[in-house]
Amino acid sequence: MQKPRIPHRFTGRLLSALLILISALGLAGGEIAPVEAQVAASIQPPTATSGTLGTGTTWETPWYVIDSGQDGPTVLITGGVHGNEPAGFRAAEQIRHWPIRRGKLVVLPQINRLGLAANIRWTPDHRNDRQRRDLNRSFPTSERDEALTEHTRAIWDFITDHQPDWVFDLHEGFDFHRLNADSVGSSVIAFPGQRDFAKRIQQAVNADVDPQRHFDVLAKSGPVVGSLARACHEQLGAVSFIFETTFKDQPLSRRTRQHRRMVSTALLSIDVIAEDCVDHLAPQPSRGITNVALFDDSGANEAKVLKVLEGRPELRVRQVGRHDIRPEVLDQFDVLVFPGGSGSKQGKAIGPDGRDHVRQFIRDGGGVVGICAGAYLCSSHYSWSLNLMNAAVFNQTVEIPGKGRKSMWYRGPATDVDVELTDQGSQVLGVSGTQSIQYQNGPILSPGDNDALPEYEPWAYFRSENGIYEPQKNTMIGAPAIVFARYGHGRMLAISPHFESTPGQSGVIPRAIAHVRGE
């Protein structure tokens, strides 16, 4: 039986200390004295409410309000104003679950919901209207009292109802401003009077950034006219900022983390949160929902897996990178997924410490699913392997006449091969018999030579093969296509072919996730 996991809890140190003190006083005296009782009664968990603007319209916009019940500022967090800037949306969605100690947090994580779905900057409803298509030019200005569209008017009415004191609008640029002045990517945009606060944010985010890609403070004239941030400053007197990451050459997990770093620094500075929340990606577990961490850093081609998993009500998916492969982050998740791409690049990206942390995660009861490159990673064959099972990989380097030395892992371009499920594989994964599944150079596994590691159990076999060199012939047919292993209190599934890329077969991946979680 799989050991239950206890996700990492993010609680304010002050709240914890007070509750411990109150408990101690009560135990010592037999009952809680009136003063302590009053303190205990005054400390209540934040209340969360949610709703939708424009219900029934094409531009329905979800909102969330977290109220601490304690006096303090009202902070507005917005993301996804531009649909091709997903990091702000992802970060805002994570931030809305942060524990606040005072004030109120108002979050609009995906203002341009349809634009995000289509990965376009504009609102699809107005994409051919140059005046109205950009939401961040549609809010009130010093010369225009009203927002330009029904959508932005509803958003503006909602914002004015809450009268925010602070506004942090999360965006992305196409390039690093430090290297390309035509882009505002990797910057903190502020009004001149807020330069010192902006520099504090800049210093915090730059601590983990390559110096050539450092964030800059842009505080000459403030956010652009017509933007949400500028409207909040001019019309409502809010202290407003735009935080910009850069989507060029950076995984989404890294950009999302940079947004969390900037917002966490800001909220700590104004005493809205009690401790740094940069590592808080997923909310408290809830019944029937699995928290899934999907690796998206170097060597990961996660897009198709993400498409399969997102939107499923039983899954809560967060993309994670090398900086997130640490206990304080992994403890928030039930399952870690390594997708296709390059196993060596993924393994080297997380490094020796990260590989140790993954092993501890599964040893303590977590689940791991490795797909193609991720299956290579789960083996014990390479120096960068996770060593989750005693498994070698067919990967000799052979001299091929007229072609030179060639590595046998490469078997040619993607093609379909026959895969036959075992009875156990069929029962768990919902696929029976022999199926034609896309294959793109996934590992050909065999028993390894490290008896200290768990042995794997084949759940599917290859019944046809792909290959381009003579030494590859007859090495694939009969080899395992899917294997299962137990590691400590946890479970692992390594899947060599691509069910997520095969029409009608993508359901195998969420079933695999459910199984390694222990459901």
From TrEMBL:
Pfam families, A to Z: AstE_AspA_cat, BPL_N
Descriptive protein name: Succinylglutamate desuccinylase / Aspartoacylase family protein
Protein keywords: Hydrolase, Metal-binding, Zinc
Succinylglutamate desuccinylase/Aspartoacylase catalytic domain residues: 71-173
Required co-factors: Zn(2+)
Gene Ontology terms, MF aspect: hydrolase activity, acting on ester bonds; metal ion binding
Taxonomy, superkingdom: Bacteria
Ranges of residues in domain Biotin-protein ligase N-terminal: 333-503
Organism field: Stieleria neptunia
